[in-house]
Amino acid sequence: MELDCVAPVGDITGEGAVWSAAEGCLYWTDINRFLVHRLAVGDRSVRTWFFDEPAVAMALTDSPGTLLVALASRLLLWTPADDERRTIAVLPASNAVRFNDARPCPRGTLLIGTMANNVGPDGESGEVAPGLGALYRFTEGAFETLEVGIGIANTVAWSPDGATFYFADTLANEIRAYDHHPETGALGPGSAFFAGFERGAPDGSAIDSEGHLWNCRYGGGCVVRIAPDGRVERIVEVPCGNVTTCTFGGPDLRTLYITTARGGQGRSERLAGSLFALEAPAPGLPEQTFRLS
């Protein structure tokens, strides 16, 4: 499958990709440079905003023009049109941890994971202490703890029917599947869905309309498309080692946008930190929205 380097922005750690169909734009972050980018697909122009701490994840909301931004230590409501920012919650833990991957569930509540804080005050990278992460549900202004003892919380995704929730621990090299009740949000116990894959470790993921999970492999230089039964359906090579997250966009949701990070070695890393895109064999699902009302 042919990759297109859409925006060679040189992110240190590109992450948090979300598609805004209303704007025809893709938003994503650079964690270590405290940035949010917006790609206007029509003319491929990129605009960038600076935040005062690492920007790690984003989501649409049910208020037009307002996005949810997860920073390292707090959640913001942000309107790009006038750059208004309003804090709505702070991390329910010590400063030894930070937020990481997050997405709204089919009911409109936010599931968000944490990890040991590995980003310094000036964006410098540090080591990740294991076992400090957790998975939370955020709704009505409060956090509910769903799971603890996680290394790096990544991959927050649901099957097309909402009956299965996928969640990864990067340090454990494991993606887990949980029974999920779409109407109540109740989760059953997790079980191994895709574990021990030798190419890198699981980072962010997206689901297509056929129920395949597209998982980005940090350190593995690829995106792997995983069938609902856990079988590897295909591997898409990416010209840099650290592949971080992906989401579907474009007018027909057939474009898979892929973020990457710097940190690998060799000539193939010249495009590390770029935003890539490919035309997928099946369309994705519309982005879920965080419910404000």
Report the CATH C-level class.
Mainly Beta
Q: CATH superfamily membership, which one?
A: TolB, C-terminal domain
> What's the order of the H and E elements?
EEEEEEEEEEEEEEEEEEEEEEEEE
From the structure provided, what is the oligomeric state, counting identical versus distinct chains? single chain
Largest sheet: number of strands, sense, barrel closure? 5 strands, mixed
User: What is the tally of helical segments?
Assistant: 0
Level-2 CATH architecture = 6 Propeller
Side-by-side strand order of the widest sheet: 9-8-7-6-25
Shape: globular
How many DSSP E strands?
Answer: 25
Q: According to CATH, what is the topology?
A: Neuraminidase
Describe it for me?
This protein has 293 residues and is an all-beta fold. It has a single domain (4-290), classed as TolB, C-terminal domain (Neuraminidase, 6 Propeller), CATH 2.120.10.30. Helices cover 0% and strands 54% of the residues. It contains no helices and 25 strands. The protein has strands at 4-7, 14-20, 25-30, 35-40, 45-50, 55-61, 67-71, 74-79, 84-90, 97-104, 110-116, 133-139, 142-150, 153-158, 164-169, 174-180, 187-195, 201-207, 213-218, 222-226, 232-237, 242-249, 255-261, 275-279, 289-290. A five-stranded mixed sheet has the order 9-8-7-6-25, with no helix packed on it. Strand 4 and strand 5 (45-50) form a beta hairpin. The mean pLDDT is 96.
